[in-house]
Amino acid sequence: MLSMVSVTAMNSTTSPVRKGSDAWFVTTHWSVVLSAGRSDTPRAAEALQRLCQAYWYPLYAYVRRRGYSPHDAQDLTQGFFARLLQRDAMTRVDPAQGKFRSFLLASMNHFLSDEWDKSRAQKRDAGQTISLDLGSAETRYLQQADDTLPAEKTFERRWAMTLLEQVYERLRQDYARENKSELFEALRFSLMGERSAVPYAELARGLNMSEGAVKVAVHRLRQHYRKRLRDQIAETVATPEEIEAELRCLLRALAG
Description:
With 256 residues, the protein is mostly helical. The chain is 69% helix and 0% strand. The chain has helices at 2-10, 22-25, 29-36, 42-55, 57-65, 70-84, 100-114, 116-126, 134-144, 151-177, 181-187, 200-207, 211-234, 242-255. α1 crosses α14 and α10 crosses α14. The longest helix is centred in the middle third of the chain and has 27 residues, at 151-177.
């Protein structure tokens, strides 16, 4: 479902970055991490942790696709984040890597090549630094597994799907806060580029709205989704100019 959402949204979100957006952009999570440099500020550490919390699953899928067992993949994923979120994590961030996605994959590749034995001991000793639902990760991995994809493509596709899940959940929460959950549930079909199986007139009666108002609500929902999508991507890149390129990468990953 969410893959279809992305195609619809991305085909409508290739407008140029607005002038003056830099002032907003410096507050996004990855830009905060990059701007911290070697100071390792609490704000940057929190931003990095929030990004890791949101996007740990694509790394788990990547490690599994590299051929590690479920148990070893769980140990590696947790050990990796225990190492990454240590106090000196900011000193290892290379601004030239640009995207958080690129940084995360490069860091995991280094970890897998050099730190396997250490990670097993660290995982036992360090405790859990972020909440990882590793129990359900394997079930999710098996449901989404595609044996034709190489490990890097698996990571990219899981990244794209995870990002869209984050967008969808934020959008659902937005409507819930406005007491519009019923409207969201009735109209979410439009995010998939589909027409409703129920005629608009019937939807309107069920929602106690006019047919014209329903069509306006669909338009606004899709607009809101596109804004949320751009905002979510902005949290993971270094500059506003990279948003469009990352949108295109997202589309390619989903088209696979």
